[in-house]
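Bug: token stream looks shifted between consecutive jobs. Job 1:
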Amino acid sequence: LKQNPAAVLHLDEFGNKLRHGLKDANGSPVVKGFSALKEIYSQADDILSPSAFSMIAMSTKQRAEFMQQNAPIQMPHLNILAVTTPGQLADAITDASVEGGLMNRFLFITASGDVVENEDFNSTPPEWIVEYMREVSEKLTPNNGGNLQGLTDDCSTLIPETVLFSFCNQSMDALNMFKKEIKDLGKSDEFMADMSQRWRENAMRMALAIHAFCEPENRTILPSITQWCIDYCRYYGKKFALRTLELAQPSEKYGQRRKAYLQAFREHPEGMSSDKLGKMSPWRNDAPSFRNGLIADMIASGEIARVIGEKPARGRAPRLLVALQC
């Protein structure tokens, strides 16, 4: 985003990357990257600021370098086009990623049809689409030529020239009806309430993008495009939610095991090490992958935490898992 605040990112094996981003140890680069995605999504019309960091011990030169490397990014727009398999995605998704809102910021499309054999792929875009995008950019931002021109090596601190598009009254009526539909859906189904939170916003963003691409000089978003995007986000949103339930651990077993884990942690206020978890009930009764995923969810939700235990006479201080809520 520092190189190009309006970026398109292509990712293969997305499920594996997502799994590392949600389940690796805190502090890893992948975890930091995925934890920033929600903020990037929400700050599209604002400023993405770096995390607070003390510069008291830094020299003047170090402070200048730090400020340059961590300068706020104006109006970040990160577009991710990724592919994965259902199995990889099922292994990656956690309760925390659903309840916390990360998953509903994505729009997942299920591919169908015959599997195509891998062939040499030419990643160079067709010349017609490059030329058309230049024309659209010129119409939207005539003063600087748009993002395809490349203003400087680092334009992340520059405030872009914005263009206002408005939804017509018919489009707003459709969006308001969709908002009510989503609200009613969430009243009877907590899982669908979490999964559908961003459907309306995703439909609005998609409608804006398609309209700006097709009719950049018309600043009113047409109801036909708006309704199509609503139908699209609803259809694939529901399809992905149902697919997620099919692939996930059975909810009854998951809930029972999570309750048993929490009770066991509370019965051991001194904390439990990873070695003990594999030897004691209830933890030893589950596969390591299931156990580790459930514990990661409990840490993310604030039920348990990793702490450093008392240092023994020899060796390093143990890392322990302790319950936080009584």
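Job 2, same session, no restart:
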Amino acid sequence: VETTGRLTIVNDGGGTLYLAPQLVGACESFRLVAGGDPAAVAPGATRNITVGFLPTTLGEHACELSLGTDCDPVPLIGSGREPIVSGTVSPNPLDFGTVVETTTARRTAVVMNTGEVPLSIIVQPQPGCAAFAFVGAPSFELAPGAQMAVGIDFTPPAPGNYACEILLSDAIPPLQVTGAGRTANVLWDVSPSSVDFGSVGLNGGEIVRAVIVGNLGDLPQALELSLADPDSLFRIVGPADPQPVVDPGGYLAVNVGFTPSVPGAHAATLVLGGGAPDVPLAAFVEDPLPDCRVGATLVDFGVVNVGGSASRTVRVDNVGNTTLE
């Protein structure tokens, strides 16, 4: 790493000062950076000369800056040392806390070159890091003072504690990564908890009711829809897939149909599966009861001419629970 020094020359005399800067001696580690051209300095004026020092070997170095015949030479000295190679990664340790098993969480760490030369980074996860994954290029280089954010994923395959050590460079302490896996919660919201189709008339059309199933757990869950102790009058109308998957926070409508074709009480159980509670189903089909209501007890046509005609309307209402014949 090169360092520089500046020399200021002041003309305190009454005449012009002529400068011809040059390095004299074993000056391989020194160079004139600025102000090295020959110059005439007027009385009272100044001239700046910048010298760079980049040691080619370890130890002491000496050189002489000659300014010309009007000024004495200036000794230059410097010492060469090994460049500082260092870096940091933060935060370290990097803790993921608790993560649901089989799900993935991502955290970010910042790698920084705090040294004086480019720093080569090579990511080397050590044994025991199977639950962790480095995101991005496995190797890269950082200029002095540069930094880069890197991502690390944690996917615990089962409940338990996990720890990992990731090597980045000899100049950086190993990154310690920890995390814990926990059992996924399975929680369902089912409404209503039972379905009663009520008392219905014989041979009416199919009646459909909806059961809303919500996944309040941590992971996508598959239902296994079926009817237990099935009464042939009940059926699952939808969804068409008997094993639908409900995402966390998602809801699904399960439609159940009942066709009142046989008198009496009927029952079945809607089995949702996947850890969700069963839903009892009930219905009652009334015995056929024909009944009608006539809007008039007497129809009076009044006086009608022979050969003429008259009409009246009689309203008949079906107030029973079956078809009137």
